[in-house]
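Appendix B, example 12.
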Amino acid sequence: MAMADAREALRAIGDDEGPKVVATADVQLALSDMDVEVANSLLTGREDGWLCDPDQDDSGCVREQPRYRYDIRREDAQRAVLQAARLAESDPVRMRTVQALLDGLHRYDQHVQAAMRHGRSAEHAYGALPPDAAKEYQAAGKLMAEELLPKASNLILGGKAIMETTYGDERSGVQAGRTRVVVLGLAAILVLAGLQIYLAMRFRRTLNLFLAAATLGTLVLTVASASLLATEADQLRAAKENGVDPALTLARAQSVVKTLHADRSRYLLLPAQADRNDQTYLEKSQTILYVPDALDPAAYYAGLERQSAKPGGVGRGGFYGARARESGSLLESYLAYQQNDNRVRALAEAGQRGAAARAHLDQEWSHLPHPRFREHVEGLDGRISQHQYTAARTVLDGERALAAWTWLRPLSALAIAALVVAGVWPRLSEYR
């Protein structure tokens, strides 16, 4: 029973709740990616390539890459939302959140399409949007920031709570099973030892070798089973704490990082909302790496330079600050990205918004974010995959260790029973 509990616990972390929760986090990532693609298209004035439909238009138009990526990530978001629905099929509150997300995705898409249609009515590449396009884009950004992303975050937190409950119950079951194995194993050893003493006294035999072997076999089986269950509990903890948990945390951090790019794009596209978007950018940056007393972006950039110049590195605040030892190259690429963003903001404040927009994007492939930003996101992707691999490998190791006991356990029980019979039968035969 204890080993069945261990197998079920590993399956929950490795195949059921664990992967489902990490997949649910892709809702946030997909939404953030959609926001980035919309911002890049509007910033470069490529609305025609966005609205183009080669299957219906006779003009031979060519659809731009941002639109293709947007559609792919939109499907990914819907798929992840449905995954969250399967995880919360018995929770009406979460199901309402799922429905609200699907409805919100549709409304967001409508605002985006309207912004693209209005945007192509005037030449605005690397500049502020026309008023009608700005209104629709602002509505889309508000919907994303105030409804879609918070609801996606709620889904992740709800899924994480379900996983924590399942993990706690399953691991407690494995530990309780280990205790039962030890207690019952010791009881069986005492019974066999008592039988050995009884036969020695009743039939005047000093030692029954078969019963001694059965007692030793029971002891070995008890110790091996208890040790295996302790190992399985450790494997379960390692799969969660070194695999699923950090993968989920990194995925959420990656979503925040991606929204930084979209916030800076909004800062450039909507001059009337520049201060608000600037403050939003600062607040999100502080959650990634905290700089004390940085009340505006300029102070934040200066604080980053001071902290990176310290012998001990950055402080302990924010996601990377709290995990400075593990962050490594992630922290370096984040600082490099913020240095480029400082340049973008300085150009915008100097009135060179076109130059700022170009510095915000890739110089060679303008439909892509800046290389520093992509380098940081790719680093996060690598870390997430690494933790997911750790979880999968740990679960597989645990399942392999249990597999041998599928046949070893009944064979051991039969062998011990045979030894008991072999030890008792000669004494009973004396009565014939």
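Residues 131-202 form the longest helix (72 residues). The mean pLDDT is 86.
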